[in-house]
Amino acid sequence: MKATEAQLLGFLKKSPQFIIPIYQRTYSWTERECRQLWDDVIRAGENQEISVHFIGSIVYVEERQSQISHQSPLLVIDGQQRLTTITLLLAALSKELGDGEPVDGFSARKLRNYYLLNPEENGERHFKLLLSQTDKTTLKAIVDEKEFPQDYSLRVKENFRQFQDLIADCHGELAPICNGLAKLMVVDIALSRDQDNPQLIFESMNSTGRELSQADLIRNFVLMGLEPLLQTRLYEEFWRPMELAFGQEAYTSDFDAFMRHYLTLRTGDIPRQDQVYAAFKDHARSRNATGPAVELLVKELLDFSRYYCAMALGAEEDSDLKLAFSDLRELKVDVAYPFLLELYADYKQNILHKEELLEAVRLVESYVFRRAVCNIPTNSLNKTFATFTKALKKNRYLESIKAHFLLLPSYRRFPNDDEFWRDVQTRDLYNFRSRSYWLRRLENYGRKERVPVDEYTIEHIMPQNDALPQAWRAMLGSEWKRIHETYLHTLGNLTLTGYNSEYSDKPFIEKRDIVGGFKESPLKVNKGLGELDVWDESSIKTRAERLAQEVVKVWGSPGISMEILEAYKPVPASRDSYSISDHQSLLSGQMSHLFAAFRREVLALDPCVTEDFLKLYVAYKAETNFVDVVPQTKQLRLTLNLRFAEINDPKGMCRDVTGLGKWGNGDVEIQLSTVNDLAYVIGLVRQSLERQLGSEIAD
Asked: Where do the domains of the chain lie?
């Protein structure tokens, strides 16, 4: 490696051509980064005390051995965002300069011939900077002063327009821009093709400019080390189609999420959002999918990316599935995508029929919606779906899905019809996260001609107004205030209307009888309202009960016989039965009071926690052990079912027992000998429980 300081413009002038390799990400600087560069240029240009301004490094390697007749183009490993942005600024400035030269060396002709073009070359060698794919054609059009291509690069075009606007705002005072550009400096880093590792250098230098996405790093890891012909083929056959499937905007915003879901499916572990790249490298190496052998992995990524785009980005062509996936997106069920990717892959391979996939998707929707209505914490959902595929029996595909849903333990349970029917009547559904979603689904259930619910607004039959009009108070009776507070935002009092402003706070009879009122409403959710004379507590409850019966059908539960369900239940392992009486030290003596206090606190952590006395220790479980207690004469020895690296222990009470023989499950050990440490220790135990319950993986 050879690194030197260089004036940016001089560096551009002497260099034959910069090429952005196909494995590099597309141009991604936004208005914010461009504005920062512009401000730096203007500040340097206006302040005579600033002699130079560093903007980072340009790392490159020669494409091939240079010949006597001409220099080889430079492949940019790091710095393409800066190079591209400076090129856009120079192109915008050259258009504004015309025949003028406000600073020596800054005329339109000189800017173009020194820094934008190789005037004596033809074809692609005519351009100083060649980007990749869509970015390339757009930048060439700008530099060549031609019309934008039809499939132009959004970022390249927008940032060029931004610089044109900023320059126009200078009202002809262009000298500060020229002087600022002349002061820009870079670190010129030339790599040796034979001695330097571009991938390692690329990773280590990814700390300036706009941070690379996890997908950018993955693409570079996959393609950078390959032979040029294989690199080009894999990019054009597999990676480029992925980029096109997502589209320019979605590739930037959604590709990292797709990679996370794919890795969750393939590994069973949910990587942190900032660790997707590291997880992918581990996965690729576990499959020996590096070098030329990476082709099968990249092909699989292309297939699964198309499945993801169908479900998550609206690319599905089948109308029934498209609607079901749209409902999932509106409900924001992203955590289910690892599971659904497996199902969709099997659907595409004719292992799972379309009708079965559709029913499975609707069950996922019902599961998430029912749990939200029943106010069950969502922190277990990611782990539930990350491990769901382990329960699949593909010779009885849909049956195994239904059975697994019904056998999920209490904190992961699929709420039954009675629980759902009861809770949906009393839940605040107006402030629900997706109220337009549930009203649309309820109204359109069973309809062949769908009602465009988005064109309607939500109507409170009993008005929201805290200062309830006298007519309403009289109709509700002496307990009007309690009724208003209790039922205002509930199922029985909510409906849809296109006449919200006309309804206002009018009395119920007027809402019923006006033009477009409840009597004339064609909507199913308004059925029966036109026949009522009174809207009071009894009317609200009656309507809620009737609508709740319909709601239970819309978001149905898995239909499976008890006989079949029994066949899916795990057979409990037979073992001797123990109780606290088998641990005399916990019944009396020095540790009995401490254990009693510990036991009370652990069982109070969550309703799903159970206690199991074994021969040598006591286990506390959700689905499996999260803390085990080994009674000793002067202390309780606790084992947490966590990797030692996962525990947050500011006091340093924990000991790493990885690989050591022990009773209990996990790699974290704590010695508890006094009640004074109990609160802190319970906090450590909670971490183990939350890990098992599947608390959201940190961003």
From this structure: 2-211, 228-422, 429-554, 580-693
